[in-house]
Amino acid sequence: MKPPPFDYLRPHTLDEAVRALQAAAGEAKIIAGGQSLIPMLNFRLLNPGILIDINRIAGLDYVRPRADGGLDIGALTRHHTLETSDDVRQRFPVLHAAMQHVAHLAIRNRGTIGGSITHADPAAELPLMMVLLDAQIRAVSPRGARTLEAQDFFVGALTSAVDEDEIVTEISLPPLPQGAGWAFEEVARRSGDFALAAVGVVLHVDAGKIAEARLGVMGVGDTPLRMFEAETILFGQACDEAVIDDAVASVRTAVEPATDLHASADYRRHLVGVLARRALRDAWRRATGDQHAGN
Ligand SMILES: Cc1cc2nc3c(=O)[nH]c(=O)nc-3n(C[C@H](O)[C@H](O)[C@H](O)COP(=O)(O)OP(=O)(O)OC[C@H]3O[C@@H](n4cnc5c(N)ncnc54)[C@H](O)[C@@H]3O)c2cc1C
Question: Whose CA is nearest to atom 52 of ligand 1?
């Protein structure tokens, strides 16, 4: 299918892009990698009067290590750059692992982190990573710049908190605790497909007990979700099978998956529990070096 007709602007500065968005008064769409926007145009799900192509704006494509151990990532950074970045692999191995599951190489060569999180697909890996890693997302508009917490950024299926005249410019990831264990588990029907469900875990262990637990899920609701009750169950415990049982039960209770063409709600609820169990065991092993934990 072909897209409806649209005007096209390729600004060279952020200021120019912001002014164009303002002038379009809601009729414009930003285009970054185009890997989600163009299919939506082709299916006639969107009909913008003008596309504002941000690919020629310098200084939006970077992975920048911070002195505190975190990373700043420009909104135009391609998925493939994240997938192959040594800084991402060393500082956020869970993000490195998640990137292996994003679509296919051709799509990863074009798709951007800013586009993926703004598109806010409930089954996309980067939104889950933002929520798991407590990302801060910066955006500019005619009203100036603001920073959004990942927890407030994803407001519904294919809906983010980005206003129609805003441009996402940077994503900041605060550092993880030294030596934190991590795991990413996903099931999709075929390699490169969107996930049926996925789970990300980060565990910081101190003196044999969990000092910080993060457990995020996606594919089982309209947005990626942190499982705060399960995190509370894990806190202060050794991650044995009884504790994992309680955390998994809490996850299954907390999620509200939908039935769709790909899977029933019951299947997704079961699946997310299985993935949470695997992820908790792996994260605990990585945090403690205990090769015999779980099975
Ligand atoms: C066949 C196929 C399989 C895929 N599989 C997966 C998968 O398994 N996992 C996954 O996560 N994704 C998958 N994707 C989506 C892919 O990752 C997209 O690249 C991504 O979702 C959107 O990024 P983009 O840069 O292409 O954004 P675009 O398509 O250019 O834009 C997407 C939306 O974000 C807005 N936008 C883009 N950049 C900005 C910005 N800086 N500020 C404000 N708004 C902005 C656009 O206006 C648009 O509304 C798949 C896509 C295809 C075609």
Answer: 35
